Structures are given as structure tokens and as C-alpha cells.
Amino acid sequence: MFPGSERQSEAIAKIRQLWLSMEQAFGARLTLHDHVGVFTLPDGQELLPGKNLHDAPCCRFWYGNREKCNTHCSFGAKRRAAEEKGAFVTTCFCGVTELVMPLRTGDVHTATIFAGTFRKKDFDVSGFPARYRRAYEELPEWDDARLPELEALLTSAGYALLRLAEELRNRYPGEQGRPGQIRRFFRNHFADNVGLADLAAELGLSESRTDHILLATFGQGFSELLRTARLRQVEKILRETDVPLKKVASVTGFGNEYYLSSVFRKARGISPGRWRKERLQREGPVPPEKSR
Known about the structure:
This protein is of the alpha+beta class and 292 residues long.
């Protein structure tokens, strides 16, 4: 905790209360996918713990085999959200419908809010198990006529939430000044094809001066810091999902699973597959509040 920790606690409580108010106004549970860590403080404290879980009964039905869910929400919907300017409706393989709202800081797609879940009136669930069909029929039915109203709600409240989180992070000592600006660069661009020249342009400095600052401040050069940021995200995905390594590599900037495996093994002394397996053996399945 930093000086003024009482104000920090008040700010965190305000963020969580706003989230609760959003759910109450929407009349449904909201889920947050935080793509660059804007809703996590530098000390690891989550501002909205457990809100990354799609927790409807129909979603919980698939917890034992989440690959299709991850493919749809964590990758497919995220990829579309990165391209869309506003909210859109998505329906997954099991008929669950959600309103998806991308949040951006400038040109960076920082987070995605999923609002739901709903059922589609004409979706055929006859081929699913009886227990799933019963859970599905209990979901409220999605009405396209509500889209403008709900999009306006998510836009205003979602960006208010994003501003509060960014203000809180910016008050954190470790995020102030140029070091904080550098950390934010790597957090926002770990998956991009960026180099020292891009960071130098961000800082308004020459490449040689930027390289000197990185070595003096962090004891590492640009490539090492970018690799560290990417590996941190790889571990997060391995810990929270069961998606194939090929997809993990594609969303973390490594390009392919072979290069990712080589870098991961060199840095951690173990393959990513083995890391995931040992973590599961040691800590057990990810609890529901930490899944997805």
C-alpha cells in the first residue's frame, strides 16, 4: 500500500460499487476481460476480483471442458471487439447470448465487458443434455430492441469505470513518471510487433537515450523487457485457461508455439505444457472465481 492508502481503499470501493450498480441497472451479471492489466495494481491487487468469470449456469456447465468457451470469448469475441467501435451481440456455440462492449484507451483495446447471459428464442438446444436444456430455458430471452439502451448504459458506465481504474494506477508510485510510462507501454503493446524505436517515439526521446534509461532503470534492454511482459501474459493464460499453446502464442506476440516454447523453457527452465500441468497438480483446478 502506498501513502494515502485510505484514499486508495476508498477508490477501490468506489470502482466495485460502480460495477455492482452497472449489474443492477443492466439486470444481468457482467464479466470483465482485462487485456492489459488496467484493472490490476502493480502490486498484483485486482480491482474487480473474480469478475473475469462467465458465471451463468449454462457457462458453468462447460467448466470441465473450456476450450470452446475460451475460443469463443477469450479469442473470437476479443478479436472482434478490437475491431468494433461500439457494442455488439454475440452468441456462442451453446446458444448463450451476451452484449459485448470494448473499452479503449486511445487506440489501445484495454478491456472488454460481456453483459448477459441471455438465450436466443430460436436457438435449437435439442441436441444438448437435459440438464443444460433446463438451465438454458431459465435464462432471460434476448431482445434486439434493447440494444441501443443497453449500449448507452455500458458505454457511459464502462468508460467511467476505466477512468477510475487508470487514475488509481497513475497515483501508484511505481507507475508515476517515466518508469510508469515505460511499464504502460509494455503492458499495452506486449502482443504487438514493436521495437525500441516505437518506445523512443512514445517517450519523445532518441533511441540511444531510451536504451540508456531502460538499462539504468530496469537493468534490462528493450527485448528483455518485452519478452518479460509477454511471458507474464503467457503464464496468466496458461494458469486460467486450457487453450492450446498455438493460440496462446498467437495472442502474446510470440508468433508460433515453437518459439514460445523455446523462450519459455529458457526463462523458466521448464516447458509451458509442463508448467501448466505442474501448476494444476500443485494448486488444483482454477476455482470458479479465477477461471476464464
